[in-house]
Sequence to fold (215 residues):
Amino acid sequence: MDRHRIPSLAYYTTRSGTMHYSSNSISFSVNRLIKMEATLSRVARLQRERRKGGSWMGKFSKMADLINSDVFLAFSTYTTIVILKMMLMSPLTGYFRITRKAFQNWEDTWMGKQDPEERKKMLQTNPDVERVRRCHHNDLENIIPFVVIGLLYTLTGPDLSIALLHFRVFVGSRFIHTVSYVMSLPQPSRALSWVVGMITTFSMAYRVLTTALHL
Fold:
């Protein structure tokens, strides 16, 4: 019995000229073609994802580059400064409460030497204390949006000089606003500092929206 091979099929020819196909050889060839097709399909899919930026490894690498960028480091620095400034408003409120002897809770009047009448007088509203409390509340209304929007802003890849301008202007405006509020400086010092901070936050928000939504 003679054996002849062609590229995709193997068969045997008997002396009488009858061809008998080898089922094992056919099965091997079909399996090999299926594996090759699957490999080519997988390679093509990976290439498409790489071109579109859809590879999760590519996204992770890009995110890591953004976090390690100078813009993100600058944002972290100025955000830490302004958050610490906001946190210091709580002890400042406590200081004014103690020095003005103005409390909201009975147990806080323990320094009244157990004299009920004197302790009752401490349960009062003081304008200086309320001024610091309102300043602290204003910080919460403005700094928290700045932190959230600023973080998204850094992920858009802005220019370092422009980003620093946004961060510095906002932090400076909040310090001026606090000094103007606590020290009762005449208007429009406090109002202008608040407006500058709001415009800065809206400017970063506009950059985020135009980058993400292609407005």
Remarks:
- The chain is about 70% helix and 5% strand.
- Residues 2-54 form one domain.
